[in-house]
Amino acid sequence: MVTHSTRRRRALFALGWLFAVMLSLVARPVPVAAAPTLVLPTPPGEPWRIIQGYACGTHTGWDRYALDLAQVNGPTYNAPIRAAASGTLWHWEARSGTIILSHGNNFFTMYTHLSRPVTTERGYAFAAGDVLGYAGDRGSPGIPHLHFMAYTAGANGWSSRQSLPLKFAEGYDLPEIGGCNQHGGKVLTAMSLQDPAVTFTSAALPSGWYNVDHQIDFSVAWGGGGLSQAWNAEPPADTPMFPGAYDGYARLADMGEGWHTLYVRAWGPDGRQTLASYGPVGYDISPPVLVATPQTLTLAREQAITLVWPAASDPLSGVSGYRLYLGPDPAGESEWFVTEPSVTAPPLAPGTYWLRVKPLDNAGNVGSWQTMMTIVVE
Domain limits of the chain? Predict the structure, then answer.
């Protein structure tokens, strides 16, 4: 015969079991129907090594499938870290330098030990490949590296977190293989997500002439495979002159005086190429030349006249005009400017006057003052 207390215990047990089942269903993360394709969060074209793999050291809990990554050929510190998939900033923790992106469907990616973030604005949208911060050693001082993982979680983003084995669009599949430090030592190189993009900056603008040795700087986004550069001709498309380079520069004086165009060919880590150009830009450091024999001209008082002198020459940037002085000083100078080699003189009072000219070119070079005429007004 079942006693009243026994029935009560059985009822309480059944009720507790039902509550536990319901709680587990609520806390269990919603299955990810379509997890986004992940790209490596490291800079394109750079080799990074797994210095701590799955299921070892600090990667033994819910974060079993985390990776610690460090540059093979660099300090790692302040290296740009990019979003592994399109998503929004869901969480930032300053103490450990952690950014968590939400990608929808209860799927998240986490980037830890950043030296600084690009933004801490919750909900800020990142496209796959966008830089979200820079590698550092927050929370793990002394060894700059990126701690990265992808995981699912409950509706609140925290409960029932479970990291997932990683697979990247670059072709790296890192499944569970058992043991400690799984995939440790493996070198991974991120790919570009689009053709390389070349950006130029310079104080020397295209179609302009300059008489100083300006520098033209250029940088490559979505690069990593290297670059080549050449003046006035497209560089060859077979092999980059500077493997692995992301930026460079050229100076106008490299080619000497003349009208020049800079060409840059950039390679992505996957072999894609972009050819870009800057220019033409003119470089001219030679002053214009004015060859003339001084003349003497006699005028009647109050007589207006157009004064003409030989044109200056400048084979590069061309002559922009002339500084002009007309007055009683045989060594006079002024800021009077005319664009043609002539001027209509006003009626002059009796006396002696000197017409002096200094040519200017379109690059800013100036010739010397020369006396074109001595004018005697009777």
Answer: 1-26, 31-189, 197-283, 295-377
Token pair of 285 as six digits: 């450091």
Task: Please give the Cα distance from 216 to 252 (Å, whole number).
Answer: 8
User: Up-side HSE of residue 291: CA atoms within 13 Å toward CB?
Assistant: 2
Q: pLDDT tens-digit profile of 6-53? A: 555 554 444 444 444 343 333 344 444 457 889 999 988 789 999 999
- Please give the C-alpha separations between residue 341 and each of 77, 316, 353, 355, 364, in angstroms, as whole numbers: 63, 19, 18, 12, 18
Place of tokens 């490291």: 42
pLDDT of residue 23: 38
Residue closest to 81 by CA, chosen among 57, 110, 108:
110
Which pair of tokens denotes residue 190?
């991120």
Is 31-189 CATH 2.70.98.40? no
* Chain center to CA of 187: 26
Query: End-to-end distance of the chain based on CA atoms, in angstroms?
Result: 149
pTM over 0.90: no
Q: What is the rounded CA–CA span in Å between residue 307 and residue 326?
A: 10
Containing 16, the helix (H) or strand (E) segment is helix 4-27
**CATH classification code of 197-283:** 2.60.40
Domains 197-283 and 295-377 equal at CATH topology level: yes
**CA distances for 354 relative to 17, 85, 230, 351, angstroms:** 113, 76, 50, 10
- Answer for the pair 357, 309: CB distance below 8 angstroms, yes or no: yes
Superfamily the domain 295-377 falls into: Immunoglobulins (2.60.40.10)
Dist. CA 86–CA 124, nearest whole Å = 11
CA angle, 292 as apex, 289 and 293 as ends, to 5°? Answer: 155
Least Cα distance to 212 among 221, 202, 225 occurs for: 202
With contact defined as beta carbons under 8 Å apart, do 65 and 165 qualify?
yes
Question: Is there a contact between 123 and 88 (Cβ–Cβ < 8 Å)?
Answer: yes
- Write out the two tokens for 320: 């922009």
The rounded distance, in Å, linking the Cα atoms of 32 and 48 is 28
Q: Which residues contact 281 (CB under 8 A, 6 or more apart)?
A: 202, 204, 205, 206, 207, 208, 210, 214, 216, 252, 259, 260, 261, 262
Find the DSSP H helices in 138-218: none
